[in-house]
Amino acid sequence: MTMTRALFACAVAAILLRAAPAAAIERNFAGSAQLDYLFAPDETGGTGGRSVYDGFTTEAALKLAADVSDHLSANVKVCYGCHGFELPMAYFDYRVADELVVRAGRFSPSFGAFNIRHDPANHVTSDKPLPYDMGRMLRLSEWNLGVLPSPFPDNGVELGGTHWFGERVQLDYAAYAISGFRAPTGSNDLVWGLSQTRGGNMIDNNGRPGGGGRVAATFRIGEANDMTVGGSVMYGTWDPDNRFSYLIGGGDLSARIGRTQVRLEYLVRRQTFAPPPGVPYKLIVPPSGEESFEKHGAYLEIERSMSETVTLLLRADGLYRAGNVPATSPLAPRAAVFRYTAAGTLALAPGFRLKASAELYAFSNDVPVHQDLELAFHLAVVGTF
Amino acid sequence: MSRARPHRWWGLLATPARSAGVWLLFGCTAAALVAAACATTARDGLDVAQLPAEVRPDYTVFARRCSKCHQLARPLNAGIREDAMWADYVERMRRQPGSGITRADTVPILRFLHYYSHDYSSLSAGAPASARVPEAGAP
């Protein structure tokens, strides 16, 4: 079934490539592939099953962008990753002006600063910052990934645009309505797999769209420096009965000073749920039967291009979860994970890089004490065209 | 509620033999990395010293503006030869949120890309990208 979808996506791409004379449509075909090996010497498996994807993983992406006219463009992207084929992009952009673009189809809605760099070819480390982790973190099952695993494609429509105030300030904005994240009745967290192509039924489970928006401003300071400040929000109901909701907020600050980039981002997700009857929880469930938890995530990273050949990065990131959990969960009602990363890339050829990183994880059920320390190492090659 | 088995990073030094091969692999790779870093001449961008003087300011704008979200190799390896396609490509990038690319920036960027895809590429046809060096006095 998954292969059928992938073939269908490829067929759509082929049709777009062939459908019109070359002079009528400008097309750009691009792609990337990363092979990563994750060595987690201290991981033996968590209580919820395998707790780390140690070993080889491949992420590959093929993207076709076609400018149908001055105002209309189409994008289709097919990815292959840990969970098989995925269609993270299949949308049209209708551009009235730079200040008003209507996007419709399947896409990742505008949220946060990282998502635009989520392709492994566009960031130094093999994995993503913990708030956006999609599966390369240790103990991923216990934590149910990050605050908002990236990318987060969904079906919907987005109105957005960009406006320059002179030559120094760029304002970006977007508002969208999407299907929203999902989980079956009785869940105590979102089920990310239901939002992926492999999830099967791509129809919303509750018929009520989610929504959100983002505003960001970029300031050019001198010729070689710039700074971006942004804020994002997303809200929706996740269960079939529309009883329970999630609210995700985020703020980001990034600056480029010469060859150095500094990025800081914070996300928080507040989610309500109802513990199923008969399932014991670590804290007493209130009489209303409704619970909530908050999951915070943040990262701070400094990236420096040492030369045209070598780039180095230092990163500190973490997750903090506060809220009731089932008695069987290895997490406490207040649990945290901190991670410290040193990483680098080396250009082997133009468009082909070697990535290496070492990560120290510190898990804690007695915040903010670092209780459980674990190491992880990544070695990867990544290529683009 | 931590796991029963204590985890200490220094304990990794005494991990079972099953990890020995992987540690050896990582050690050899680290050594190879250091050696490669010293020896490689590969680069994502171009060597500005090898560019004609009149192209360097345009390349500087291109390198600065087009490396914020991705490596320079991405546009340089795009295989685009036509100015109209470059114009569409740069326009698409300019409209990306937070690109920091103004309309005024697109002029030197497109001027450089025209040079790169016509003069530079023809000078270095058949040579590996890392070895593409225009002849002295070339425009």
Structure report:
- Chain A is mainly β.
- Chain A has a single domain, classed as Porin.
- Chain A is 5% helix and 53% strand.
- Chain A contains 2 helices and 16 strands.
- In chain A, strands 1-2-3-4-5-6-7-8-9-10-11-12-13-14-15-16 form a 16-stranded antiparallel β-barrel.
- About 2% of the residues of chain A have low confidence.
- Chain B has 139 residues and is mainly α.
- Chain B folds into 2 domains: 30 residues; 84 residues, Cytochrome Bc1 Complex, Chain D, domain 2.
- Chain B has 5 helices and no strands.
- The radius of gyration of chain B is 23 Å and the shape is elongated.
- The N and C termini of chain B lie far apart (69 Å).
- In chain B, 26% of the residues are buried.
- The N terminus and C terminus of chain B are likely disordered.
Task: Specify the CATH architecture of chain A.
Answer: Beta Barrel
Structural class based on helices, strands and sheet pairing of chain B: mainly alpha
Q: Indicate the radius of gyration of chain A in whole angstroms.
A: 21 Å
Largest sheet of chain A: 16 strands, antiparallel, barrel
Number of domains of chain A: 1
Instruction: List how many beta strands of chain A DSSP finds.
Output: 16
The helix/strand series of chain A, from N terminus to C terminus, equals HEEEEEHEEEEEEEEEEE
Indicate the topology.
The complex is a heterodimer of chains A (385) and B (139).
Chain A: H1 2-18, E1 26-39, E2 55-67, E3 72-81, E4 84-97, E5 100-107, H2 140-143, E6 154-165, E7 169-178, E8 210-221, E9 225-237, E10 245-257, E11 260-273, E12 291-305, E13 310-323, E14 334-349, E15 352-364, E16 372-384
Chain B: H1 20-39, H2 56-65, H3 73-76, H4 83-94, H5 103-123
List descriptors.
heterodimer; A: 385 residues; mainly beta; Porin; 16-stranded antiparallel beta barrel; 16 strands; globular; B: 139 residues; mainly alpha; Cytochrome Bc1 Complex, Chain D, domain 2; elongated; disordered C terminus
